C-alpha cells in the first residue's frame, strides 16, 4: 500500500485520544471567563476581590513554566505516552480541588496543579503526535492539538454561564479521566522504542498505527534515530553556538510579540471585558461567539503558512491585532469619558474582537512554533522548545496579572492601548529581524543565520575600530 493510498484513520484516532489532554488544558485556560464574574459577585460562596481574581487567572500559567524541562527529561527517559498519562494527574487533582474549594487559597492551589499539567502537555503532546504521524498527515495532527485546545475553551464559554462553578469543574473532570481510560491502551511512539534499541516493540507500535507494509518506514525511522543519537546537543549549544544564539533571540522576540499583543488576557477575561460594554447581547453570548470564531479559524494559519509564507503572515497578524487593540481601547476610552458619542456603537467591541481573533489566528497563534521547528537543528530543537515554553508561560502570566492591575489603576482602555503599542513595535521588529523561511531547506536557513552573525560581528568590529 503506497503512501498516497494508505488509510490514516489509525493515526487520526490515536491523535484524537492523545489530544483529549490538550482539550483539558483548554478547559483550564478558558475556565476563568465564566467563573470570575460569579466569584466577584454578591452571590459568590467564595468572595473574591479583583486582585485575587487576577491571581486565580494567572497563577496557572506561571506554574506551567515549571514543568517543560522535567517533562522533556521524563519523555526521553520514561516515554512520551507515560509522561502524558502522568500529565493528566495534576489536571484531575486541580478539578477535584475546585469542586471541594471553600476559600480562595484552595482555588490558588487548584490552579497551580492545572498549570503543572499544562506545561507537561504542551511540551510532550507535540512530540508524541509528530512521532506517530506520517508526513502526509503530520501538519493536520499538529493542528489537532490547537483545535482541541480551542474546543476546550469554547466548552467553558458555552457551559459555564448555565451551571455552578462546582458543576462546571465536575464536567471538566470527565475529560482527563476519559483521556487516561482511552490513551492507556494506545501505543508508545516508535521513535522512543528505537532510541533504546527495542526494535520489536517499535515494530508492534508502528503496526498498530499503520495499515499495510511498515518495513521501509521502520528502517527509515531507525536511521533517523541513529543520526539523532550521534549528534546529541546540549543546553550550552543554545548559548555558545552563534547561529543558535541568533535564532534564539529572533524566536524570543516573536514569542514576546505573541504574548504582549494581549491574547491571553482577552481569552481569560472575555466575559468581564464584554460586561464593560453596552452591547444588546449578554456578555456570555458574546463570549460564545468569540469562542466559535477561535475554533473556526484555528486551522487558517496551517492552510496559509506554506502558501503565503511565515513572515508576511506574522506581519499581517501583528498589524491586525495592533489596529484592533487600538480601536477597542479608543472605544472604551470614549465609553468611559464621552459615553454619548459611542452609544450607537454597541456592536463595535464584539466585531473588533472577532477580527482580532481572526488576525491572531492566521499568524501569531501558531507561526512562532513553526519558526522554532525550522530555525534550530534537530539536536537542540527540544531545548529551544523548552526555553520558548518557559518564556511564554512567564510572559502570559505577566499579561494576565497586569491586565487587571492596569484596568483598576488606569482604566481598561489603557490596557488595550498598551497591547496596541506592543503589537506595532513588534511589527517593526519582525520587519527588521525576522528572516523568511518558507520553502527553504534547513541548510539554507542555517547559512542565512551564519551570514547574519558574520555581518553583525563585522559591524561590531568596525564600531570598535572607529
From TrEMBL:
Family: Belongs to the major facilitator superfamily. Sugar transporter (TC 2.A.1.1) family.
CDD domains (alphabetical): MFS_GLUT6_8_Class3_like
Extent of the signal sequence: none
Coiled-coil features, chain-numbered ranges: none
InterPro entries reported in the protein's UniProt record: MFS_dom, MFS_ERD6/Tret1-like, MFS_sugar_transport-like, MFS_trans_sf, MFS_Trehalose_Transporter, Sugar/inositol_transpt, Sugar_transporter_CS
UniProt keywords, alphabetically: Cell membrane, Glycoprotein, Membrane, Transmembrane, Transmembrane helix, Transport
This protein's name: Major facilitator superfamily (MFS) profile domain-containing protein
Main location: membrane
Amino acid at each position: 500500500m503506497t503512501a498516497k493510498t494508505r488509510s490514516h484513520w489509525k493515526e487520526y484516532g490515536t491523535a484524537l485520544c492523545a489530544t483529549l489532554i490538550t482539550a483539558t488544558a483548554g478547559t483550564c485556560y478558558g475556565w476563568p471567563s465564566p467563573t470570575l464574574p460569579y466569584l466577584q459577585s454578591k452571590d459568590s460562596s467564595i468572595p473574591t476581590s479583583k486582585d485575587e481574581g487576577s491571581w486565580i487567572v494567572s497563577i496557572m500559567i506561571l506554574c506551567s513554566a515549571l514543568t517543560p524541562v522535567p517533562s522533556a527529561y521524563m519523555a526521553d527517559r520514561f516515554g512520551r505516552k507515560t509522561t502524558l498519562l502522568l500529565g493528566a494527574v495534576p489536571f484531575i487533582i486541580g478539578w477535584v480541588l475546585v469542586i471541594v474549594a471553600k476559600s480562595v487559597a484552595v482555588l490558588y492551589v487548584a490552579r497551580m496543579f492545572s498549570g503543572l499539567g499544562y506545561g507537561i502537555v504542551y511540551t510532550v503532546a507535540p512530540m508524541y503526535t509528530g512521532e506517530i504521524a506520517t508526513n502526509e498527515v503530520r501538519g493536520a495532527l499538529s493542528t489537532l492539538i490547537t483545535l482541541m485546545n480551542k474546543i476546550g475553551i469554547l466548552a467553558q464559554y458555552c457551559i459555564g454561564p448555565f451551571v455552578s462553578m462546582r458543576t462546571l469543574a465536575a464536567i471538566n473532570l470527565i475529560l482527563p479521566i476519559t483521556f487516561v481510560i482511552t490513551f492507556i491502551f494506545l501505543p508508545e511512539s516508535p521513535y522512543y522504542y528505537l532510541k533504546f534499541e527495542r526494535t520489536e516493540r517499535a515494530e508492534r507500535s508502528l503496526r498498530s498505527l499503520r495499515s499495510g507494509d511498515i518495513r521501509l518506514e521502520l528502517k527509515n525511522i531507525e536511521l533517523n534515530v541513529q543520526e539523532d543519537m550521534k549528534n546529541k546537543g546540549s543546553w550550552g549549544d543554545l548559548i555558545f553556538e552563534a547561529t543558535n544564539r541568533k535564532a534564539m533571540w529572533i524566536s524570543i522576540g516573536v514569542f514576546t510579540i505573541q504574548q504582549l499583543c494581549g491574547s491571553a488576557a482577552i481569552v481569560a477575561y472575555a466575559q468581564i471585558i464584554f460586561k464593560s460594554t453596552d452591547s444588546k447581547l449578554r456578555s456570555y453570548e458574546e463570549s460564545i461567539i468569540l469562542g466559535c470564531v477561535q475554533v473556526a479559524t484555528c486551522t487558517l494559519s496551517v492552510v496559509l503558512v506554506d502558501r503565503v509564507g511565515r513572515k508576511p503572515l506574522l506581519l499581517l497578524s501583528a498589524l491586525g491585532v495592533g489596529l484592533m487593540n487600538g480601536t477597542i481601547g479608543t472605544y472604551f476610552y470614549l465609553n468611559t469619558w464621552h459615553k454619548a458619542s459611542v452609544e450607537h456603537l454597541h456592536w463595535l467591541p464584539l466585531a473588533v474582537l472577532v477580527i482580532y481573533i481572526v488576525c491572531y489566528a492566521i499568524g501569531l497563534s501558531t507561526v512562532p512554533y513553526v519558526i522554532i521547528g525550522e530555525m534550530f537543528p534537530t539536536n537542540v530543537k527540544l531545548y529551544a522548545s523548552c526555553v520558548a515554553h518557559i518564556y511564554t508561560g512567564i510572559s502570559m502570566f505577566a499579561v494576565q496579572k497586569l491586565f487587571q492591575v492596569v484596568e483598576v489603576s488606569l482604566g481598561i482602555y489603557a490596557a488595550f492601548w498598551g497591547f496596541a503599542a506592543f503589537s506595532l513595535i513588534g511589527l517593526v521588529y519582525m520587519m527588521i529581524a525576522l528572516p523568511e523561511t518558507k520553502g527553504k531547506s534547513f541548510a539554507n536557513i542555517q547559512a542565512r543565520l551564519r551570514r547574519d552573525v558574520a555581518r553583525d560581528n563585522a559591524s561590531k568590529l568596525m564600531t570598535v575600530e572607529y
